[in-house]
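Lab meeting prep.
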Amino acid sequence: MNAFVKLLSSALVVGCLGACATTRSEPPRVDHIRLEVSNMPAAVVFYRDMIGLRARSVTKDFSVLEAANIGVFLSAKPWGWLTPRAKDERAGWGMYPHFEVANVKALAARLKAAGYTIMQEPQKHSFGTEAFVADPDGYVWALVGPR
């Protein structure tokens, strides 16, 4: 019986190689970020027209946009397992994804002129320049770029 258990254990380990996360040599990659939005046209304008993401598909309920290395998916409907957010509840507390842009100051000025809320004006840091902007639903994104 001991030999059978060893054989079975070996088979399970071999079968797991390449499929189990604990044996992978590289970490998983982030495929996309999904955001629940209240106004699809306004969200698409922000992400496509203002930030510069590529629109792969845009519908009234779901849109797929693409940055250079990650997808940003917009959904007008919440997941079925979520409790709907209260009207005044801000989205995305604690999560601040960063867009790398060529000119933080210029983009922040353009967004501000278009009526978007700049949460933090561009500031210089040792790693470069950073600003924070809220999208139409209150999700806060950082804009980072060279000094």
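Slide two material, second protein:
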Amino acid sequence: MTDLAEVQRDLIDEQQALDTLVAALTPEQWSAITPSPGWNVTDQLGHLTYFDGAAALAVTNPAEFRASVDALLTQAGSSNDGGDDFTLGAFRALGPTEKLAAWRTNRQLLADAAATLEETTRVAWYGPSMGAKSFLTARLMEVWAHGTDIADAVAVRRPATDRIRHIAQLGFITRGWSYTVRGETAPEGTVRLVLTGATGSTFTWGPDTADDTVTGSLEDFCLVVTQRRNVADTDLQAGDLAMHWLQRAQAFAGGATNVPAPRGS
């Protein structure tokens, strides 16, 4: 299996794992408030539904996708909700069964489109185009991170998996971005990751001779770089250099966002 095919398979598996959780929700739980400010469970799944559809369009019809980006930016610029009504309005009006069906439809569209990608394909997206593997890894990060918000909202503990190793790699390579997006300069020095997956496997990134090392669980690291947990709420171990990064880590694009406060605060 190629790297690209592996990411696609892990993306589909992660989507199905979240589907199992969401399919069992009660009507009341669809309205449960999630850690994302202003968003409930419906909004989290609506976000995935919209952008899975947009991702499929970006692969199959780049011109139409660019038109949709312009429409979204216009709406976001003329409203106070950051474009939420544009991306979530129709989804919010659906009943629970229809919401799940809409997400499944867009997931399938994305899976069909992703099957046409090659390792060298570049895909238009919001901002610079992305390589095919990074593009699908970003979709995997999205479904896992927003799935974490849903699980937190309904007090479900999802089993950890090694699928998120792709997210960890993305988190590692965006260390510099975590500073750039804040208008800061990254401190000099290199960082190595030594993380333990759910199966007991060890995943490493960075040189053996790095100036500092992050150790701990793969899951904890992914929770931090997707800003679903403050590093203080994890068992990650790091020296000053790496901890400085983890306290502002941001593996996703867009403007700088605030790391969540420690849950004990």
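Talking points for slide two:
Residues 165-246 form a domain with the Nonspecific Lipid-transfer Protein; Chain A fold (CATH 3.30.1050.10).
The mean pLDDT is 95.
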